[in-house]
Structure formats: structure tokens, C-alpha cells
């Protein structure tokens, strides 16, 4: 079995002291490649540095998360364009809208989201997308650019069946995290994860966040890391009515094709 984690925040400060050990544990648990999420200008630069330091194992995205949209400037836009041209950067993002926290004003989020959509269109790379409590605005803007980019994944999908099918209708990929392992809030995902076409499903940890609640024993530090991706794969496989090996192989194939790994 071989797994690919399409979303790991390995630039997070919690990984600074033991990243090599984290990568060793991932490899020991069948995670052969990981995509390091860029969520700010500095974070995207760091993600690229990590990808260059671990060729063939780590890859990067470059983008600004909606939480940080208020910090986006013309300089940021220019730098993201430079980063997006690097071969190690496999997608533009994490970008999108987040109306759950509203750390940045909604009008600013919309402007910054559109600027990054344009970057993806201009450089011809896929989109790595974030959406929370903003489906209608997000979908409307995405529709305007979807045919201008080669591919798009709605990462860490936690929304409704209706939202899922809206994205599938736009030929988007769907990233599923350990949210589905949470009996308190992931139950609805279990009901329709089988409706995601085989070639549109990818899996991710979103480490260090969203530690799967199915991990036993739970680590005292509560930090998620790529080694736990199999727990997510197992939960998805069960809910899709297929073997873990099939889910792993299909999701890895989808990720490899999407990110051109």
C-alpha cells in the first residue's frame, strides 16, 4: 500500500524540531509523498524550500489563505506569481473564502481569492481551495475561472451533499481529512463519501490539525502528522464499501495525476 497526503502544513512551528523524524514515520506508514500547503507568502516560500530539500517526497503549493487575505498586497501577488512558476510548486493555494471566522473582511477575501484564481489561470496550474461557510460566493467566483485552470481540488471538504455535487459538476476533485473520523461532526460525510467518483477523491491529514479521533491511543501532544493518513483512508474505505487497499491505490493515483507527481 502506498499513500499520498495532498495537504500537510509541514511549515507549522510544531514541526520545526523533528521534521526529519516526521517524514521517517510517514514513510514507515506507507505515505510516500506529501504536498506541503502554502497558506501565506512566507509559508509558501518555506513550503518551496522544504520541497527542494526533499525532492520526490515533498511538493508544495503557493497561496494565501483567506484568514490572511487582509495582508495581501501587490508585492504578495508578484511573489506568488514567481513561486507558482517553480516546478516544485504543484498548485496555487491554499486560497478561497472563510466566512466562519472572518479574520479578513469578506470583500477583501473575495478580491484576494479572485487575484489568486487569475494567477492559476495565468501559470496554468491547479487550484488548492478552501471554503467554509461561504459556498454560494465561492461557487459563483470559481465558476468564472474553472475552465481557465487545468484542475481544482476543494481541500478539507466538510460541507453538504448538495455542495459536494456542485463541485463535482465543475469537475473538481475533493479532499477528505480526518474530519470524517470524528463521530461528533463527520457523520454526514460518511453518508455520501461513496458518491465521490474514484478519480476525484483524494485524502489528506491537514497536519498538524484534525488528528483523526480513530487513532488509538491518542498522542498526548494532539498533533496530527502524515503517518496517520491510513486512519483516514480506513474510514473512507469502510464508508465507501471497498477495501483499504483499493481506496489507497485510487486516491494515490488521483493525487499523482492531479499534482503531476
List the main descriptive attributes of the protein structure presented here.
TIM Barrel; globular; 8 strands; alpha/beta; 261 residues; 9 helices
Question: Overview of this structure, please?
Answer:
- The structure is a single chain.
- It is built from nine helices and eight strands.
- It is an alpha/beta fold.
- It has one domain (3-259): Alpha-Beta Barrel (TIM Barrel).
- It has an eight-stranded parallel sheet.
- Strand 5 (127-132), helix 5 and strand 6 (152-154) form a beta-alpha-beta unit.
- The protein is globular and about 45 Å long.
- The mean pLDDT is 97.
What low-confidence regions span 5 or more consecutive residues with pLDDT below 50?
Answer: none
Number of domains: 1
Helix content percent band? 40-55%
What class, by secondary structure content?
alpha/beta
Count, helices: 9
Strand content: 15-25%
Radius of gyration: 17 Å
Give the N-to-C terminal Cα separation. Answer: 17 Å
The main pleated sheet reads as: 8 strands, parallel
Query: What is the name of the CATH architecture?
Result: Alpha-Beta Barrel
| pLDDT averaged over residues | 97
Number of strands: 8
The H/E string reads: EHEHEHEHEHEHEHEHH
* Biggest sheet: strand arrangement: 1-2-3-4-5-6-7-8
- Global morphology: globular
Write down the CATH topology. TIM Barrel
Could you name the CATH homologous superfamily? Metal-dependent hydrolases
What is the CATH level 1 assignment? Answer: Alpha Beta
Amino acid at each position: 500500500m502506498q499513500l499520498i497526503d495532498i495537504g500537510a502544513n509541514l511549515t507549522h512551528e510544531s514541526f520545526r524540531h523533528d521534521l526529519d523524524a516526521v517524514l521517517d514515520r510517514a514513510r514507515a506508514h506507507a505515505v510516500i509523498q506529501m504536498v506541503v500547503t502554502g497558506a501565506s507568502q512566507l509559508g509558501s516560500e518555506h513550503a518551496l524550500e522544504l520541497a527542494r530539500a526533499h525532492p520526490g517526497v515533498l511538493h508544495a503549493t503557493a497561496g494565501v489563505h483567506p484568514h490572511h487575505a487582509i495582508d495581501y498586497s501587490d508585492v504578495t501577488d508578484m511573489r506568488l506569481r514567481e513561486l507558482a512558476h517553480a516546478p516544485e510548486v504543484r498548485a496555487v493555494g491554499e486560497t478561497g473564502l472563510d466566512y466562519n471566522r472572518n479574520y479578513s473582511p469578506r470583500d477583501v477575501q473575495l478580491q484576494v481569492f479572485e487575484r489568486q484564481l487569475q494567477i492559476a489561470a495565468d501559470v496554468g496550474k491547479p487550484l488548492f481551495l478552501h471554503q467554509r461557510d461561504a459556498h454560494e460566493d465561492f461557487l459563483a467566483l470559481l465558476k468564472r475561472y474553472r475552465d481557465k485552470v487545468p484542475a481544482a481540488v476543494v481541500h478539507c471538504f466538510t460541507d453538504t451533499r448538495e455542495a459536494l455535487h456542485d463541485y463535482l459538476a465543475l469537475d473538481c476533485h475533493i479532499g477528505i481529512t480526518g474530519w470524517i473520523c470524528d463521530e461528533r461532526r463527520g457523520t454526514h460525510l460518511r453518508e455520501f463519501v461513496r458518491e465521490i467518483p474514484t478519480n476525484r477523491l483524494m485524502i489528506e491529514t491537514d497536519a498538524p490539525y484534525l488528528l483523526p479521533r480513530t487513532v488509538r491511543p491518542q498522542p498526548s501532544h494532539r498533533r496530527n502528522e502524515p503517518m496517520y493518513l491510513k486512519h483516514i483512508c480506513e474510514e473512507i474505505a469502510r464508508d465507501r464499501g471497498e477495501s483499504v487497499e483499493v481506496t489507497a491505490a485510487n486516491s494515490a493515483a488521483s493525487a499523482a495525476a492531479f499534482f503531476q507527481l
